[in-house]
């Protein structure tokens, strides 16, 4: 009597195990493909080697690597970030990447990219599963894979950093994941799932307030459309829950995260700064479209953004004109939400005077993902293999195989400036000062290793995206003066005026000078100056 019962009990368990194995396998495949793409570009042509020219050479990218290093080595954590404070999901993901990389910054970027794309894939899988509950798991996995195609192919092209923002640790990844995953909160039926998703949304919104600029306007319009169609009562609960989530996120931000922000998000709302950022848009995009491949990608992205808006308008009209006896379909509302995100979000940044080219991913890259999410069921069996073929051909055309084979040098890559400092700094000299844009790009790959505390051009402490403890408790022995950096060089006249002439110096290239101090009285003066200076 018991055997058939046991068999029936085991069957659902076996099915769940197979389903979980399929999800895990697909996610692992996405992660491995992403890692190979990063290595392919790292070992490929210099013009598209963004892991070297951007990940390693942009001090913004190394922030969380340095944060996790401080955390795991027991250093006091008195960090100041930007309005984006990275607490969730970026910090947990960076901890995992750091551990997997064994503390290697080069490998860390590879693992971050793999983890990011794996998380996006899981977010897309959950969404399509909730949107299409009657379909088979294989179709859900195929749908999520199809939507992931731009997030794999574009970094493989590697002709613009914008195409790889979603693979970086600090370029608004939490915002991208929140925009994609947020509709799932309103679709899940399990209380536990809704609580978990709600907590994730609260933490992500509190960490990445810019996400709300892209999420909230479409959400408000979706609720408005549903209210017109079915009355206010039909959206009252969703509106109340959304309000609770927003208020909770605000409370978490103010109570727990405010100490971490380098400046308030409200400080970005400034007309003069807004006009200056608008002025930066034209030369920035002019530089990108000078490359033919990037021009094609951005054109396709812009067309997809417009298509999303058209889809949203048509979808809203059809939704409002539907037979009154028809059952409300949240699937149509999710389509409306994604259709509005790119251009409604962009309009919201303009209304708040915060438009910036760094926010363009959701306007030009995200729409490609949103369009592919809408692939009809009958097309999925054809689109999936075609997409896989396009990815394979792109890899072959861009030299992915030879790139991966030649990526070994990336894992030990150091810039010429870092090599110069490693080789020429006197024995025992391991702590110095530089600008923000030079600090991490030079020090994180050092083999000595040396560290750099960031300061401003007029030699004041700079607490933007750094651990305040460095300047407040330690004293450096050298200054790196770079006349060709991404910001104004540190003034040699100010340094010598404050601390006297250096005891020695050397150059690392034209306009790149290292001032070294060794006399005890000068070192004491340097330490006292920075330990007691409140900084900016």
From TrEMBL:
Q: Could you tell me the keywords of this UniProt record?
A: Membrane, Transmembrane, Transmembrane helix
Domain of life, per lineage:
Bacteria
Q: Does the keyword Nucleotide-binding apply?
A: no
Which chain regions cross the lipid bilayer?
A: 21-42, 81-101, 108-128, 140-158, 170-189, 195-225, 237-256, 296-320, 332-352, 358-376, 383-405
Q: What is this protein called?
A: Glycosyltransferase RgtA/B/C/D-like domain-containing protein
